[in-house]
Amino acid sequence: MALGKFVAAICMWVLASAAVAGAPANLADLKKQVADTERAFAATMKARDHAAFTTFLADDTVFFSGPVPLHGKQAVADFWKRLYAKPDAPFSWEPTEVEVLDSGLLAFSSGPVYDPAGKLVSKFSSIWQRDAKGQWKIIFDHGWDVCDCTKPAP
Fold first, then answer.
1. Residue 42: strand, helix, or coil
2. pLDDT of 35-72, one tens digit each?
3. Residue ranges per structural domain of the chain
4. Across all residues in the chain, what is the average pLDDT?
5. Distances, alpha carbon 44 to alpha carbons 2, 60, 80, 121, 122, in Å
6. Does the model's pTM come out above 0.70?
7. Phi-psi region for residue 134, left (φ > 0), alpha (ψ -120 to 50) or beta?
8. 26-145: CATH class
9. pLDDT tens-digit profile of 119-133?
10. Strands 136-145 and 70-71: what pairing?
11. Mean pLDDT throughout 111-120?
């Protein structure tokens, strides 16, 4: 009897996953969802809401935020907590490029990162995964500095 319930549960999970995967076939709508999700994620920094920040993280997320990659939601949340400690946000970001796989399950976002004065200081790229509930969760995040240099005249 228990095996029958287990098999039924697996079948329901497979059907639910297939329904989510096939739900919105319109890639333009999915790209808008991801861009809106990225903007909401960034808004947590401006609002100084660390708890909201953590809701966007997948349990097995990987962030390249420090000297070594941070693995897991808790490690990322712990590392980023210090960035939410002061009353003013240390930086802001926004997506300028978003792409979604045809399957609608994974997405890429990228864009600029600005200091509080509005100066471009780095860029980011993120990989998002759509979960069984249709919510986008960040699974990879990487930022890198931009060069603030001028080339000498030849």
1. helix
2. 999 999 999 999 999 999 999 999 999 999 888 999 99
3. 26-145
4. 86
5. 44, 20, 12, 19, 18
6. yes
7. left
8. alpha beta
9. 999 999 999 999 999
10. unpaired
11. 97
